[in-house]
Write the structure tokens for this entry.
Amino acid sequence: MRAHEAGVLHADLGTRGPAWLRRPDDVDTMDPALWSVTASRRGDGVVEIGGVAVTDLAAEFGTPTYVLDEVDFRTRARAYRDAFDGFDVFYAGKAFLCSAVVQWAVEEGLYLDVCSGGELALALRAGVDPALIGFHGNNKNEAELTRALGAGVGRVVVDSFFEIDRLEALTQSLGVRANVLVRVTAGVEAHTHEYIATAHEDQKFGFSIGEGDAFAAVTRVLDCDRLNLLGLHSHIGSQIFDTSGFEVAARRVLALHARVATDLGVELPELDLGGGFGIAYTSQDDPQSPNELAAGLRTIIELECRGRELAVPRLAIEPGRAIVGPAMCTLYEVGTVKDVALDAGATRRYISVDGGMSDNIRTALYDADYACTLASRCSEGPPILSRLVGKHCEAGDIVVKDEFVAADVTVGDLVAVPGTGAYCRSMASNYNHLPRPAVVAVRDGAARVVVRRESEEDLLRLDVP
């Protein structure tokens, strides 16, 4: 479903909110499914994360600020590593990338995927073993591929015939070899937003299995002396809650895998199933655990391979937002509160904060849902249906479309939005010339900046008078 160009302001939700949203008995209750593992509310109502009060974070680091729970990140990384024992588990750099997160991921036994020269540069500067890096992207240029080949990245995921030619020429000129995966589209449209479903045919990624391009791409790579074909790569989308889509995709990808073995005499050693596992942004979301996902995927692959008399290849997954998404929340300060009259005497409360679509574009871009809570004190008023909005000069500048918030929320209060670890800071912008927020990591009562806040000087430095 495409979002209205002016954003979710124009969604017809009435005055009671969406059907899944329930009026809470206690507006101060924090749903543990939405928050990082160390987040809790003290007796005075102040939210703590990693043993640090958000009031102290706001006082020291300002707002808006992304608060990153190191214990939560590491816990989720280990959960996927352990559940998918025997798989290569790749952390998705595009979800959120900084040196600290890269180091945590590698220390917890994960691989890393990147999809641009900038992401690759950061990973290398952070000290990642290049052999642990997979390089994605539908339009990797010569400079990016040259850097990747020079560094010795573990896998290059090729996405077009032009890229195969480009990669072949570069490996010859540099005198190196490259490990390659061929990205294929399986014709499966995941149960997710149109813009983040990536395995149906009408989109920019990969080679179509149905049209025969994928088999032709495999043949082309096998003809290149300096390209070592490891296997196939499939990714069906993002924010996916079950394995049913993977079952159809795996069947089609393994049919191609079998055809390569039969027709070309090559049994490929690896298969990357992608990922895109979903997280809980609101109470309507019910994601599966890593163990449940792993059990489902193992069963699918084993049954398909057994039916085709294939050895099970070495498998890889890319959990995406599932590791970093719940590990971060965004802390805002309230600037204005406004009640707007609607039809039939109803009103809608607008709570304006000091950030917005520049630090979280997902609500406007994907019609995404988020939750929020008053974070700096106990509530003294009843729950009232509210909309959390930003300070940008844009009608669609909405952070949380509908949430029950205490009626006494006022100017100067702190509000926290959970589940902002993935694709919020990484997609942040300087719209209206707002500097991008800091990322502050918390653990065991201590806080440290891992991505510093931009300043006006940073913005003006690029401007040429």
About this structure: The chain has a mean pLDDT of 91. The first helix runs from residue 54 to 61. The first strand starts at residue 40 and ends at 41. The chain has two domains: 8-68+326-461, 136-319.
